[in-house]
Amino acid sequence: MPLFRKKPVVIEAEQYKEYGKLVPGMCNSQACFIKVSNVPHVHTIHNNQIVLLEIGDWIIPESDGEHYYPIKNIEIDRLYDRVPKICPACGCGAPEPMHPGFLCLTCIRNP
């Protein structure tokens, strides 16, 4: 998952790329789909507001870590800088998938 930097906070974002494919932050509640909407959506921190997703939207966690909001693909590059994934042990630019705090394969194999 790509990382982005919003000045000055680093966040994780997941892109919604394909209809029907569940993405972290996307609502997966059967009750919600039956009562409210069967359209892909997220719940925001603002009174649990439902915001519909479109293909290409990035899903970003709210400050509470429980709610999410979408941001358009064109806006992500305007508001955020991509953060390179760097191994905390050796400083290499490790290939995907590497999450913050994890070691690269070289460091795992040669401790």
Q: What would you note in describing this structure?
A:
- The protein has helices spanning 30-35, 73-79, 105-109, and strands at residues 3-6, 9-12, 14-15, 41-43, 50-52, 58-61, 68-71, 80-82.
- It has a 3-stranded antiparallel β-sheet. A 3-stranded antiparallel β-sheet has the order 3-6-7. Strands 4-5 form a two-stranded antiparallel sheet.
- It has 111 residues and is α+β, with helices and mostly antiparallel strands.
- The longest helix is centred in the last third of the chain and has 7 residues, at 73-79.
- The chain has one domain (3-83).
- Helix content is 16%, strand content 24%.
- The mean pLDDT is 77.
Keywords:
111 residues, alpha+beta, 3-stranded antiparallel β-sheet, 3 helices, 16% helix
Cα-atom radius of gyration: 16 Å
Mean pLDDT: 77
Number of strands: 8
The number of helices is 3
How do the helices and strands follow one another from N- to C-terminus?
EEEHEEEEHEH
- How many distinct domains? 1
Q: Strands across the major sheet, in which order?
A: 2-1-8
The class by helix and strand makeup works out as alpha+beta
The N- and C-terminal alpha carbons lie at a distance of 25 Å
Strand content: 15-25%
Rough shape? elongated
Helicity level: 10-25%
Oligomeric state as shown: single chain
Catalogue the unreliable spans: none
